[in-house]
Amino acid sequence: MLERSDLAANALFSLHDEDYDRPFNLQNLNADTMLFTGGRQGISLNGDWNFCVDLLDTGLRQKWYAMAPMPPGERGEPWDYDPYDGETIPVPSCWQMQKERWYFFEGSAWYTRKLTHDLTPGNRLFLRVGAAQYDCKVFLNGQFLGNHYGGSTPFCVELTEALTGDDAWLMLCVNNRRTRDRVPMQNTDWFNYGGLYREVELFETPATLVRDLSVSLDDGGIRVRIAVDGPAETAHFRVPELGVDAVIPVCDGLAEDVLPATPDLWSPETPRLYDVTASVGRDEVRDRVGFRRIERRGTQILLNSAPLFLRGISVHEDDEALGKVTSEADLRRRFDHARELGCNFLRLAHYPHHEMAAKLADEMGFMIWAEIPVYWAIDFDNPATRRDAENQLRELIRRDRNRASVIIWSVGNENPDTDARLDFMTGLADLARAEDPTRLTAAACLINHETLRIEDRLSDHIDVIGINEYYGWYEENFEDLVQIGANSRPDRPVVISETGADGDHTDHGPKTGLFSLAYQAEVYEKQIEVLRRLDYIRGISPWILYDFRVERRQGVFQRGFNRKGLIAADKQTKKPAFQILADFYAELRGAG
Ligand code: GCB
């Protein structure tokens, strides 16, 4: 803070304090503080917030969050930033997409807005941030309430106690710097957007509330688990269409039971959903849930006991104009394109996508591979990094585990096979199973292109082995794919989690050879020809539905984009390879 009494000394101290971040990096806003928000009436905090980028972290050093609103004329000291005036930014948004001068900005940025909420006495108030890339520190009226790590999962913080007086000011400091200890680390093949890029909301609840609700199919019927915050003797659970209406005792904050019921099963062909309600005292939450069984048996993946081939497509959360900001219309267009391709499956790469994605997939009948960004190099030896990855996985699972569409939790992508990585990632696979025993685990594993084998010790610890192979692009001989199967003899299902080639559809694009649309189409044709002979493959999710923005692709045909999309970054222009894959999937559907 710009201490009136001793400004010069404080300024000097703050310049020399390299541990300024430590008190603000508690990561106490985590999976354990999440709030189930289904059916709750939120109060949107979307819209314009005061905004300032802060490359040098001056705000944390000087304590900008502690500067109470004051007219400029009354200030006894020079402020280096005025949180209550000046530039604004819309929430949700990625700052890169707002102003050209923020395009490559990586660092902290301050978001400030006034809260005018009339809290009913005895009630509680929670702030929920849909996602903030990557570290988000929360201050209310100058008081630090905690921070959250991880750029793609939601978090909640209770404001009740700190909400004093009529003029409450909320300040969030969001930092997207790429650092060695984060997940992902410095290097990725997608753009490092920054900011509050998903919805920000307030939720008011009674003193005793449903903290969490999980519902799944069980042998005896429906398993329900209600986590209760506050004193309560019983919880009430209902699925009217199934005649389920149960009062369940609460013991140590948990109400758990298996209730007899025989729901119609969810599948992509019949995406049947049921309304469920859980209440405790005056608090009630709701969800729409599908019931289905997903298993691996030998080398097969079974949905509701029937073997399955995953006709998939990979997709990033990226938009030419909006960056990572997603809307329902954008997601519906995505699923419409997937339907046009003939897909029954999407890989949501390489981090948790907007929660609406799995909700729409539930409704529209698509299966989903959901993933956390344990991508390429990660500081696998660092216990703090491991805690962060585990928390991101927990948050993803707790957010989406009522979604029938989600069949796979993937714990990582193309990581080097070291002892530290094996320990880290088997830990994640175990955690996924412990949090949610009803789904399959997966990862994109490694192929040794010299010995032509799947060679990755992690593959023994997950249910589905993903392989990313780029024959025709990074590798040459398509026939190797046949050999890889013969040499590896996998004992569990293998899915080609990526394959593809770049195709530049613009006027700059070449007519033949690498980066031409013709070449991309040819790669798809050859892939498909070989695929017909691969009996060890249980599904594919080619790379990728849309071209996407990325810093590391600066070739003449890339110009800041990965152009392996079947559709260009405008999300309209289809490349010829689109139809080739669509024809193949039509053929598979006919055969299946
Ligand atoms: C991969 C990565 C993916 C890249 C892709 C590519 O193997 O998993 O993130 O974007 O290759 O285009 O090189």
Quick structural overview:
The chain has 592 residues and is an alpha+beta fold.
Structure description:
The protein is of the alpha+beta class. 19% of the residues lie in helices and 30% in strands. It is built from 9 helices and 34 strands. The longest helix has 18 residues, at 383-400. The protein starts with 6 loop residues before the first helix and ends with a helix.
Features of this protein?
30% strand, alpha+beta, 34 strands, binds (2S,3S,4S,5R)-3,4,5-trihydroxy-6-oxo-oxane-2-carboxylic acid, 592 residues
| Mean pLDDT, all residues | 96
Computed structural class: alpha+beta
What global shape is seen?
globular
Q: Which hetero compounds are present in the coordinates?
A: (2S,3S,4S,5R)-3,4,5-trihydroxy-6-oxo-oxane-2-carboxylic acid
Helix proportion range? 10-25%
The N- and C-terminal alpha carbons lie at a distance of 67 Å
Strand order of the largest sheet: 23-24-25-26-27-30-31-32
Question: Proportion of β residues?
Answer: 25-35%
